[in-house]
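User: We ran a pulldown and think these components assemble together. Before we commit to crystallization trials, I'd like a predicted model of the whole complex to look at. Sequences follow.
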Amino acid sequence: MMRLAWELNGDTPIYLQLVERLRQTIITGQYLPGDKLPSVRELASIAAVNPNTMQKALSELERLGLVYSNRTSGRFVTEDLNVITHSKHSIAEEEISRFLSRMSAIGYEPQESLEQINYYVKERQL
Amino acid sequence: MMRLAWELNGDTPIYLQLVERLRQTIITGQYLPGDKLPSVRELASIAAVNPNTMQKALSELERLGLVYSNRTSGRFVTEDLNVITHSKHSIAEEEISRFLSRMSAIGYEPQESLEQINYYVKERQL
Amino acid sequence: MMRLAWELNGDTPIYLQLVERLRQTIITGQYLPGDKLPSVRELASIAAVNPNTMQKALSELERLGLVYSNRTSGRFVTEDLNVITHSKHSIAEEEISRFLSRMSAIGYEPQESLEQINYYVKERQL
Amino acid sequence: MMRLAWELNGDTPIYLQLVERLRQTIITGQYLPGDKLPSVRELASIAAVNPNTMQKALSELERLGLVYSNRTSGRFVTEDLNVITHSKHSIAEEEISRFLSRMSAIGYEPQESLEQINYYVKERQL
DNA sequence: GTGGTCTAGACCACT
DNA sequence: GTGGTCTAGACCACC
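Assistant: Here's a predicted model for the assembly, 504 residues in total across the polymer chains.
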């Protein structure tokens, strides 16, 4: 079985990786609110996974409120901007939390991590 | 392959994961400068890995200058504090770089990431 | 089989569902006592069912005394109000009985069910 | 394919019916908090459905917080009594809501439904 | 043995 | 053609 195009990982369940990928495409505005998503089968084909797996991922996205489905006409990105921005914030928090914990593992207290990243950004004029 | 004590990952080569773990124990001061490390066999046993793999990891640590070996009496943590702090900084930089790139993937510019993490730390009084 | 206008169910026999629907229209006064019902063919067409099925439903209604037929001029809603109110009560009893049994299945004694529904109605000022 | 023992319905998805059945067994205390559930395969065999379908049902129950799973040792009923009683209340509300709406369909206002059920219970000394 | 994931292939209702 | 559901059969990691 090929696993290309979207280069999936191997340690975390595929369907969760799909959720993340799709979440990103929505959060970053590659799919806009109200946009129609490709069909389950199409997305599955693109990601080179079984339609059921993609279906599971999409169900999860639906549970998160990021998409909704119209049994006959397809799946659409939610038009509720709050849900989208909320999802964005929650991912950001996860990333921050993970970052701080990794920094903590090598001996940086949160305050120090903050200083380091502050320095890093200023240094490179990002 | 068993997964105990040090819970190895599976996707990245084992020896690199060992390097990281050992690097951490040194950087965080669990092993102090000048400390004698356990023998390769012992470390291998603790981590439940093949001694050859542990050997490879230790060679890498040597290459990084974090440990040095005294053919006869064993391996020791470097006494050069500069090497240690430099290693710590370089890991931190990697973490920061990775963090910023992941935040960028969900639509946060470095400046925004900084604000977010700043807010996060203040919010939780970390 | 098409599912329109009257959205039939699929598990219970169609003619019984038709009986219920017609019973409702009479009980709730959408057809008044003495009103002439549309022809079998017409009703069948509206409900998108086979005329024979509708015929069976109407026979049942006749048996219940809710309608009577005048071989020549068509079918009419009974003018006997007692029959109508009695039918209404008997349906209500079925509903109540079913409700209590379902509540019982999840651990509510009839008395408790009563309290719950009482609370529910007051809460929402229904 | 046989569909016995638990007599499943046919109109609502099987996995949802399974969720309901299991929910009842927990809510009514047939499985007590902390009890170990039979394995997925066993439950699937009992209900005469495919293990995947049962798995889906159990995942849903887990999402509802009524059970939790210990990857290796099996699935258990939650020990959080709040979750259980909350689930019970929420089902009761659904039943009440459905009951009132059906009564409304045959011409009883909520207040009248309340009176009827009150009368019904008193009459039969339930 | 346990739960969890994945695939392949099928059927259904709705439009 | 769409989403949704279901089955059958397989593999994995964990203990």
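Chain D touches chain C through 33 residues (CB under 8 Å). That may be worth checking against your pulldown data before setting up trials.

User: Thanks, that helps.
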